Amino acid sequence: MKFKIREDKPDYECQIYVDGKLVWHGLNPEGKYGEIVKRYPSKKVSIAWKLIEGILVPTFEIPN
Q1: Residue-wise pLDDT tens digits, 27-49
Q2: How far is CA 55 from CA 2, 7, 20, 38, 47, in A?
């Protein structure tokens, strides 16, 4: 399977959910995640990545 890198469109999109409901989507979640966590302090906030095509294998570390 060959992958083409499209210059005009990103290959993925970040999505932020609150209690399983999509509340934001875009390419730069850094500022929005903190804003959403503050807006919904007692809710479960999660992040997902939607791919146009292909497989995403995230690697990250959650700070204590």
Answers
A1: 888 889 999 999 999 999 999 88
A2: 12, 19, 22, 31, 16
Give the residues across from 62 on adjacent strands. Answer: none
22 has which bridge partners?
17
Alpha helical stretches, state H, the chain: 29-39
Residue 19's region, left for phi above 0, alpha for psi from -120 to 50, else beta, is: left
pTM of the model: 0.67
What span, in angstroms and rounded, lies between the C-alpha atoms of 46 and 18? 7
Whether 51 contacts 12, CB under 8 Å = yes
